[in-house]
Amino acid sequence: MNPITKICALAIVMLSSMTTLAWSQEAGDSGDKTLSPYFFVKSDDPGTDALPLKSTSAAVDIAGVIADVRVTQIYKNEGKRPIEAIYVFPASTRAAVYGMTMTIGKRTITAEIKKRDDARTIYEQARQEGRSASLLEQQRPNVFQMNVANIMPGDTIKVVLSYTELLVPEEGEYEFVYPTVVGPRYSTKQEDTAPKSEGWLRNPYLHEGDAPPYTFDISVDISAGLPIQEISCTSHKVSTNYEGRSLASVKLDSSEKNGGNRDFILKYRLTGKKIDSGLLLYKGEKENFFLLTLQPPERVTTGQIPGREYIFIVDVSGSMHGFPLEISKKLLKDLIGSLRHSDKFNVLLFSGGSMVLSEESVQATSANINNAINLIERQRGGGGTELLPALQRALSLPRAEGYSRTVIIATDGYVGVEAESFDLIRKSLGQANMFAFGIGSSVNRHLIEGMARAGMGEPFIVTRPDEAPAKAEALRKMVQSPVLTGIKADFGSFNVYDVEPPSVPDVLAERPVIIFGKWRGSLDGRISISGISGSGSHRSIIDVSGTQPTETNSALRYLWARHRIATLSDFTQLKHDDEAVKEVTNLGLTYNLLTAYTSFVAVDTEVRNRGGEQTTVKQPLPLPQGVSDYAVGGVMAKAALAPSAPLAMAEAPALMQRAAPDMNSLKSCPAKEEAERKADKPINIEKIVVSGGLKESAVKKVIKANMDDLKACAAIYGLHGKVVIKFVVGPDGTIKKVQVVVNEIRGSNAEKCIMEKVKAWRFPGAQGRTEAEATVVLVFPG
User: Fold this and answer.
1) Quick check: 309 and 403 in contact, CB under 8 A?
2) Do 237 and 323 belong to one domain?
3) Are 724 and 777 in contact (CB under 8 A)?
4) Is residue 226 part of a domain?
5) Domains contained in the chain, number
6) CA–centroid distance for 189 within its chain
7) How many C-beta atoms surround the C-beta of residue 322 within 10 A?
8) DSSP 8-state class, residue 740
9) Which of 4, 241, 300, 432 sits between 20 and 30 A of 719, alpha carbons compared?
C-alpha cells in the first residue's frame, strides 16, 4: 500500500472511529467493578419504597448581593418496611451551608455540626438503635449527600438545610443559579479499593428522558436596593410580580413540577446596569467582618495585542453525546472561526484517549480552520472521560515562540478528579491561562470554576445553544484585553486582617473586584484599589467612615469563612495536608459550616425501630436534561477498530508528517470522499422480528441511537448490502448472545466489528421477563 493510500485509510479510521476508542464498565459486567454510575432497576420487593424522596423545594431571599436559601426535602415511606434513604444532590459552588433541621410529626430536631467522622459515628449508632436520624455530608464543594435513617412505614420526614451565597454581577447582570441534579461522574477507581468518601460516585440513574421521580419547586424574593430593570429565567417557566421599583417575587410555573433535571437560572439587571459598589460591614460578638465591592474600569481595546496561541480541548466522551457536544461544536466553531491570521491554534479531542489536530500549533489560516471544524463536526460522543491525561498532553504541547498561550476546555465536567486537575493546572501557571466552558444543563460547576480559578482565567457556563455565540465573543474580548491587571489594595488606617483573597488576580471580565476580611478598632481611613487598565493607571477610593455595620450583614461571617475554605479545599483532597485539613475543620466547627471534614447530624431521642433492621435505598437521580444514556455507559460502544488498527493509529502522525505535512492535502483523498458519501446515506431497517416480550419499537429506538457506530464499521470495512443480526436480551437489558450474518463484504472483520457494537447495546430492564430474542435485517448502502 503506497503512503498516500495508507494515509487515506488511516484518515477514515481516525475520523470514523474517534469516539469509540474507550469503553466503560457497566454495573452488571463481570470482573472488578468501578465507581461508575449505573441505571436504576426497581426492586421486585413490593414491601420496599425505592423512591422515598417525594419533593424538593427552595425558598430564596436575595438582599442586595447576598442570597439566603432554604432547601426543603420531603421523604415519605410508602412501603411496608423501615428504610434508610440516601440522596445525592448538588448546591452552588459558592454555598455556605450553615444550618439543618429534621422534622418528624410535631418534633423538630436542630442538627449539630461535628467533625465528619464523629458525625458519621453518631448517625450510625442512632441508625442501629432504631432512632430516626439525618446526616448531611459534603462529597465535593458542590455535591452533598443526605442520609435519613429509620423512616418507618407511613412516615413523612422533612429536612431543611440553609445556606447563603454571594452574587457577583458580570457586565451589569446578576445571576442566581440553583443546581438541581448531580450529573453522572466518570471514574476508573475500583469499588473495593476506593476510599469510602468516593462511594457516592456509584449512584443509580434513570434513563434518558425519564422525569424526576420527585416534584420540584422554587420561589425567589428580590430586594435589590436599587430599581430593577428586568428579570428573566432562562431555564424554567416562571411568573414574576413586581412589588415596587426594587422589590420583586418570582415563582415557578405549575407546569415545571418535574423541572428538577436542570439548573434553575435567574438573571436580573438594575436600572442603567448600575452595580452597587461599596463596603458592607458586620460587627459580631467576637469578630467583625467586611465585604468590599469595587466596579472595575470599562474595557479598553488596544491595537497593541501580542500574538496569541490557543489550545482548544474538547470533551467528546459519552456524557457529551447529543445536546452538550452539539453546543461544544457550535462554540468551538465560533471561537476558531474568529481567530486572526496572526494567531496560532491547536485542537485536542478526548474521551478515554485523546487526539490532536497537529503535534504543533498551526497558523489560523482558512484551510487549517476548516480542517479543525471538520474534525470537530465528525464527533458523536462516546467513551469515558479521561480528563487528566488530556490536560497533561495539552499543557505539554510545544509552545509557539513569542506567543501568549491560552488553554480553553469545553466539558460537562462529569469526572471525579477535580482536585488532581486543579493541582496540575496550578503547577503549570506561567505556561498558560485556563478558561473553562461548562457545557450542559447541569454541569459540574465545581470543576469548571475551580479549573478557571487555578489557571487564573474565567469560567463560562453554556446551558443552551443560543448562548454559545455570545459566550464565545465574550471570551475573545476577554483574552485579548484584560480590564485590570497588577491590582493592589491599600487599607490605610482601616485595621484589617485575614483578608481573602490574599492577592487579587487580573480582572478579565467586567465584574467587580471582591475582597473579604475581618476588621478591628475604629471605622476610619480610606481604602484604595489600584491597577493598570487598557488605558493606563486606575485607582478607586472608598471612605470607610461613611459606612456603618448592620445586623442584616450577618451572612458576611459565613461568606468569609466559605471563601477561605474554598481556597483550601481545592487542594486538600489531593494532598491531605495536615495543616490545611485542620484549618478547614476548625473553620467548619467555628462558623457552623458544612465542609469536607465537618458534617451536620440530627438524631431523634425516640426509639422507633427496635432492632434497627431496615433496607437502605439509594434515591435514583434523573439524567440532566440533554444528557443521554451514554453518560452512564448503558449504550456505550466498545472500540470498533480492527486488531491492527491501534498500531496504525500510533504510526499515523509520523506517516502523515512524511507524506503529507499539510492536512489540507487529504481533501483530495478518493477513499475519504467515498467514505463521506456513504456515511451520508442512511442504513435502512428492512425487518425486525421480536419474541419473549421485547417490543419492536424498543429495538428500533436502540438501533437508531447506535446508527453512527454501525456506519463506522461500514466505513472501515467497505460494508454494503444486507446484514442479519440475531441477539438475545437478558432481563437486565444487556445483550447475552449475538450472531451476525453479513453478505457482500470484504472480509470477516466486518462481522466482528458489528458484533462488538451490538454487544454494547442496552435495553430497559423488564420485570418478569426472562430472556427475549430479536432478529434484525439491515441494508447498508453501496
Assistant:
1) yes
2) no
3) yes
4) yes
5) 4
6) 19
7) 19
8) E
9) 4
Q: What pLDDT band is residue 636 in, cutting at 50, 70 and 90?
A: very low
What single-letter amino acid sits at 191? E
| 767, part of any domain | yes
* Percent of residues, the chain, with pLDDT higher than 70: 81
Residues for the chain: how many in total? 782
* Residues 261 and 169 occupy one common structural domain: yes
What does the alpha-carbon distance between residue 222 and residue 224 come to, in Å, rounded to a whole number?
Answer: 6
The closest of 688, 687, 683 to 773, measured between CA atoms, is 688
Where do we find the cell 463481570?
Answer: 30
453 with 600, same domain: the answer is no
Q: What is the model's pLDDT at position 769?
A: 62
Q: Taking all residues of the chain, what is their mean pLDDT, rounded to a whole number? A: 80
Instruction: Please state the pTM of the whole predicted model.
Output: 0.67
- Cα–Cα dist 264/736, whole Å: 41
Residue given cell 436599587 in the structure block: 226
What is the per-residue pLDDT across 42-66, written as a single tens digit (0 to 9) for each? 776 788 999 999 999 999 999 988 9
- Assigned domain for 30 exists: no
Q: Are 393 and 348 in contact (CB under 8 A)?
A: yes
Max mean pLDDT among 10-19, 199-208, 406-415, 592-601 falls in: 592-601
HEC-encoded secondary structure of 280-346: EEEECCCCEEEEEEECCCCCCCCCCCCCEEEEEEEECCHHHCEHHHHHHHHHHHHHHHCCCCCCEEE
| 702 shares a domain with 594 | no
Q: Are 23 and 383 in contact (CB under 8 A)?
A: yes
Same domain (yes/no): 178, 248: yes
- 33 lies in some domain: no
Percentage of the residues of the chain whose pLDDT score is greater than 90: 32
Say if residue 384 is in the same domain as residue 424.
yes
Taking CA 580 as the corner, what is the angle to CA 577 and CA 584, rounded to the nearest 5 degrees?
Answer: 135
DSSP string, 653-678: HHHHHHH-SSGGGGGG-HHHHHHHHH
